[in-house]
From TrEMBL:
GO biological process, one term: isopentenyl diphosphate biosynthetic process, methylerythritol 4-phosphate pathway
GO molecular function terms noted in the UniProt entry: 4 iron, 4 sulfur cluster binding; 4-hydroxy-3-methylbut-2-enyl diphosphate reductase activity; metal ion binding
UniProt xrefs under InterPro entries: LytB/IspH
Keyword Ubl conjugation: no
Species: Chitinophaga solisilvae
Keyword annotations of the record: 4Fe-4S, Iron, Iron-sulfur, Metal-binding, Oxidoreductase
EC class: oxidoreductase
EC number: 1.17.7.4
Domain of life of the native organism: Bacteria
Protein name from the UniProt record: 4-hydroxy-3-methylbut-2-enyl diphosphate reductase
Entry keyword Oxidoreductase: yes
Pathway assignment: Isoprenoid biosynthesis; isopentenyl diphosphate biosynthesis via DXP pathway; isopentenyl diphosphate from 1-deoxy-D-xylulose 5-phosphate: step 6/6; Isoprenoid biosynthesis; dimethylallyl diphosphate biosynthesis; dimethylallyl diphosphate from (2E)-4-hydroxy-3-methylbutenyl diphosphate: step 1/1
C-alpha cells in the first residue's frame, strides 16, 4: 500500500517498530491477536491494527503540503479534516480556517470567500450542493480534494446500483459529514434513505413489507430520505451501503436483515433475490474492518481494563470503545495527559457526551493487564505517550526507549 509523507510529530518510533515487526510476521493480515508488551507488573496488549488509515494519511499529506506550497494564500478547510483535535489544531496553528463545524454550522460566511482562496475538502468528502456553491464563488472544488478513495468507492457503488433502479439505504449517522456527503451523492442518482442502526432498519423493513402504514414514513424518517421519495414504490428494490466507520458487523447485520425481509415479502429464492436486493459487500472499508477485528481479537485475552485513544467526535473510535465496553472497564481518552496518576483519569463517556473523572483507574494488584488501541484518525505518537505514561507509574519509563531501539 502507498506510503505517505506525514509530519514526524505524529509518528512514533516505538509503535512503528512494533507495527513493522507484526507486518513482517503476518503479511497477509490473517492474525488478529494483540502484541504483548510485558513489562513485569504491567502487561500491555496492543491491538494488531490501529491508528492512521490510508484515507487519514492521504488527507494529512495533502493538507500539510498545500499549506507549505502556498505561503501567503488564505487556506480553508470545509470542516474538520479528520476527527482528531491534535491534527486539526496543528492545521489551525498554521493559519488554516474551518468554514463549518462538524455539524454543518457555518463558521465563515460563503460570501467571505474569494476566487483565489484555497478550499480543502476533508477526508469525509462533501455534498454536491457545497461543490456547486464553491463553483459559484469561482473556486474549483476538487482542486484540493482529500476525500478518501474508500468513501468514493461507496459513492460509486451507490451510483452503480442506483442506475440499475435500486434504492440506496445508507447505514450511517445522519448528521455525520460523511453520511451527509454520501446521501447527497447517492440521491442525485436514485431514491435514498439513511438508517442509523438496526432499530431504524427494522422500522424501515415494516414499510417494505407493508406492516406499517406508508404515511408515517415521512415523519419517522424526517430529514433522512431524498426529495420525492415514494415509500410505496421506492422500497421494492434496494441495496445497503454504509458510512465507512460504522460497525462493520452492524452494517452486515442490517444488510442481511433487509435482504431476508425482501426475500420473504416477495417470495424470492437465493437464485432470484438479486432482482430486488443489490450485493454491496465490497464497499466496507479495510481499515474499519481491520481495526474492529483487531479489537475483537484483543478482547479474547483476559485483561483488567481497556484504553481507547482518539478524538471524542470520532465515529470509528467510538465503535472501538463500544466493542471494548461490552467486555471490561473501558477508558476513552484523547491524549495521554488525561491520565493523571495510577488512580485518576479523565475519560469520555460518548453515550452521554461528557468527560467524566474516575479515581479507580489502575487496579491495585501485582500484575495489571491493559488492552490498548486507537482510532483511525489518532496519531501513533499519542499511543506511545499513553504507554510511557502507564510505565511511569511503575518507574519503568526507560523500557519504552529500550523497546524502540531494539532490533
Ligand atoms: S476509515 Fe476507511 S474510509 Fe474512512 S478515511 Fe480511513 S480508509 Fe478512508
Amino acid at each position: 500500500m502507498k506510503t505517505f509523507n506525514v509530519p514526524v510529530i505524529y509518528r512514533s518510533p516505538l509503535i512503528s517498530a512494533i507495527k513493522n515487526q507484526r507486518k513482517q510476521q503476518d503479511r497477509m493480515k490473517k492474525d488478529f491477536s494483540p502484541t504483548l508488551l510485558d513489562f513485569g507488573p504491567l502487561k500491555i496488549l496492543l491491538a494488531r491494527h490501529f491508528g492512521f488509515c490510508y484515507g487519514v494519511e492521504n488527507a494529512i499529506e495533502i493538507a500539510f503540503r498545500t499549506v507549505e506550497e502556498n505561503p501567503g494564500k488564505r487556506i480553508f478547510l470545509l470542516s474538520e479534516m479528520i476527527h482528531n483535535a491534535h491534527v486539526n489544531n496543528d492545521l489551525l496553528d498554521r493559519g488554516v480556517q474551518f468554514i463549518m463545524d462538524t455539524a454543518g454550522k457555518q463558521l465563515i460566511p460563503w460570501e467571505d470567500l474569494q476566487e483565489d482562496d484555497i478550499v480543502i475538502i476533508p477526508a469525509f468528502g462533501t455534498t454536491l450542493e457545497i461543490e456547486t456553491r464553491l463553483h459559484s464563488l469561482g473556486i474549483e472544488p476538487l482542486k484540493y480534494n482529500t476525500t478518501c478513495p474508500f468513501v468514493e468507492r461507496v459513492w460509486n457503488k451507490a451510483e452503480q446500483i442506483g442506475k440499475k433502479s435500486y434504492t440506496v439505504i445508507v447505514h450511517g449517522k445522519p448528521g455525520h459529514e460523511e453520511t451527509r456527503a454520501t446521501f447527497s451523492h447517492s440521491r442525485s442518482n436514485t431514491p435514498t434513505v439513511v438508517v442509523k442502526d438496526m432499530a431504524e432498519a427494522e422500522k424501515l423493513a415494516a414499510y417494505i413489507n407493508g406492516t406499517t402504514p406508508a404515511e408515517s414514513f415521512y415523519t419517522v424518517f424526517k430529514d433522512q430520505y431524498s426529495p420525492g421519495f415514494d415509500v410505496t414504490t421506492d422500497l421494492q428494490r434496494v441495496g445497503v451501503v454504509n458510512q465507512t466507520t460504522m460497525l462493520a458487523t452492524e452494517t452486515q447485520a442490517i444488510a442481511d436483515y433487509i435482504r431476508q425481509v425482501i426475500t420473504a415479502h416477495y417470495q424470492l429464492t437465493e437464485a432470484t433475490v438479486g432482482e430486488r436486493f443489490a450485493d454491496t459487500r465490497d464497499t466496507l472499508c479495510y481499515a474499519t474492518n481491520d481495526n474492529q477485528s483487531a479489537v475483537t481479537g484483543m478482547l479474547l485475552e483476559p485483561a483488567d481494563l481497556a484504553i481507547v485513544v482518539g478524538g471524542y467526535n470520532s465515529s470509528n473510535t467510538s465503535h472501538l470503545v463500544e466493542l471494548c465496553e461490552e467486555k471490561l472497564p473501558t477508558y476513552f481518552i484523547s491524549a495521554p495527559e488525561h491520565i493523571h496518576s495510577a488512580g485518576e483519569i479523565d475519560h469520555y463517556d460518548f453515550h452521554h457526551k461528557q468527560v467524566i473523572h474516575s479515581d479507580t483507574f489502575l487496579p491495585e494488584k501485582e500484575r495489571v493487564t491493559v488492552l490498548l488501541t486507537s482510532g483511525a484518525s489518532c496519531p501513533d505518537a499519542l499511543v506511545e505517550g499513553v504507554i510511557r505514561r502507564l510505565l511511569s507509574f511503575y518507574g519503568l519509563e526507560h523500557k519504552a526507549d529500550e523497546m524502540a531501539t531494539a532490533d
